[in-house]
TrEMBL record:
SMART domains for this protein: AAA (SM00382)
Keywords from the named record: ATP-binding, Hydrolase, Magnesium, Membrane, Nucleotide-binding, Transmembrane, Transmembrane helix
Record bears the keyword Transmembrane helix: yes
Cofactor: Mg(2+)
Ranges that cross the membrane: 7-23
One of the record's GO molecular function terms: ATP binding
Protein name: AAA+ ATPase domain-containing protein
Domain of life (superkingdom): Eukaryota
Annotated segments matching region Disordered: 280-300, 428-467
Record's catalysed reaction(s): ATP + H2O = ADP + phosphate + H(+)
Occurrences of domain AAA+ ATPase (ranges): 206-359
Amino acid sequence: MTVSAEMWLGITVGGLMFIWGMFQKFFLNQFHDRIGIYGQKLVNLASPYHEITFNEYTGDRFERSNAYTTIETYLGANSSARAKRLKADMVRDGQSLILSMDDREERNYKLTFHKRHRDFITKSYLNHVMAERKAIAVRMRQRRLYTNNRSEQWHGYKRTMWSHVEFDHPAKFETLALEPKKKQEILNDLITFSKAKQYAKIGKAWKRGYLLYGPPGTGKSTMAAAMANLLQYDVYDLELTAVKDNTELRKLLIDTSSKSIIVIEDIDCSLDLTGQRKKEKKKDEGEEVDQVRRKKKDEDESTSTKVTLSGLLNFIDGLWSACGSERLIVFTTNFVEKLDPALIRRGRMDKHIKLSYCSFEAFKVLAKNYLDLDSHKLFTTISCLLGETNITPADVAENLMPKSAEDGPQTCLENLIKALETAKEEARLKDEEEERLKAEKEQEGERLKAEKEEKEKEQKRAEEVED
Ligand SMILES: Nc1ncnc2c1ncn2[C@@H]1O[C@H](COP(=O)(O)OP(=O)(O)OP(=O)(O)O)[C@@H](O)[C@H]1O
Ligand SMILES: [Mg+2]
C-alpha cells in the first residue's frame, strides 16, 4: 500500500467514526429518550399504580424540602433500617447512638399506590402523615426547664427573660404514691385536657389550672414534674418574687411557648392576702444604710415594684396568652386556707388536689418503687401503724431506701416500722403536752376567776361596813 492510500483509509475511517458519533448523539439519544418516554407511558397505561417522589432537595434551592423532612420524621427508624449506608451520631446523654442514612445514600422517598386510592392518598393519608409528624417531633424533642430572670437581665446582648436547662426529671405517675382512684382521676383529667382542641373552638384559652396543696413532702412538686412528663410539656418555674410588677408578669407569660406547664411554687409565700407581693428580705450586711435613703427606697418599691393579686388573676385567666395553645398552670402551697378565694376559684384553678400523709395504698406504690415488693409479711404491721400516725410519703421513701449494699427489703421495712413507731410516740408525747398545757391554762383561768370573785366579795363587804 502506498502512503497516499494509507492516508486516504485513515481519513475515511476517521470520518466514519465522526459521523457515527454525530448519529449517536443527535439521533440515537433522542430515539432512546423517546423510547424511554413512550415506554414509560405504555407501562403507566398498563400499570394501575401511581407514584409520588419526594426529593430531599427540590429546584435549585439549597434547602431541604419540607415534605422530605416530614416523611423522614414520620418514618423515623424505619428508613434507616432499610438503608445500606448508615452514619452514627451520639445522642445527648452520650450513652447511645442514633443511626441515620448516610449522606451519600440516594435521598428520596417514593410513595406508590393504586390509582383507585389516589383521592385517599392525596387528601387523607398525606394529611395524616403531617399530623403524625408533628406529634412525633413533640415526643422526640428535648424538653426544657425554664426559670425567670430578673428584669435587669432582660436587656443587652444576651437578653433573655427565661433561662433554661434540660428538663430531665424522672417523676412519673406510675411511681407517684397516691390512692389509685385519685391518681386515675387526675390522669383522666390531664389526658382529656391535652386532647381538648374544642377549647379554642369555643373561644376559651386552652389552659387548665391545678392547685396542689398539702403538707411539705407529700409530692406536690413531684406531681407537677410527673404532669410535664406525661404530657411532654416544657416547664416554666415562675419565681414571683423575682418579678417586678404586673407588666413584667405579662411579658413573661407572652414569652412562654405552647405545650408548657407554668409552675408557681409556694404561692402563699409570694403573694399575701391583700394582693401585695411580699418584699424580699435583703441583707444589709456590714455598712450602715442611711435611714432616710432606705425609707425612700422602700416607698419607691411599694409604689412601683409589685405584682398584685389582680395582675396574677389576669395572668391566670390567660387574657394575654395566644389562643389555641396548650398551657397548664400549677400552684403549690402548704396553706390553702391562706389563699385568696378569688385566686383559686373553679375556672381559674380548675382542679384542687389535696396531697396528704401516706396511706397504705400510697405506701404500696413506694414499696414497689424502692424495693420491688408487692407484698411482705410486715405489710400488716405497717398498714396498722399508718392508720395510727401521720407520716409523709417523703419520709416513707427516705426510710425505704437501702442505707447500705447489705440492706435487703426486710431491713428497710423494719427501718420504716421503727420510724413509724417513733413518729407515733412523738405524736403521743405532743398530744400529752398539749393536753397538759390546756389543763394548766384552764386551771390558771379558774384561779384567776376565783381571785376576781374573792376581790369582788371583799369590796362588797367593805362597802357594807362603810354603810
Ligand atoms: N406522693 C409521692 N410519691 C412519690 N414520691 C414522693 C411523694 N411525695 C414525696 N415523695 C418523695 O419525696 C421527695 C419530696 O417530695 P416533693 O418535693 O414533691 O414534696 P412537696 O410536697 O413538693 O414538698 P414542699 O411542700 O416542701 O415543696 C420527692 O423527691 C419524692 O422522692
Ligand atoms: Mg415542693
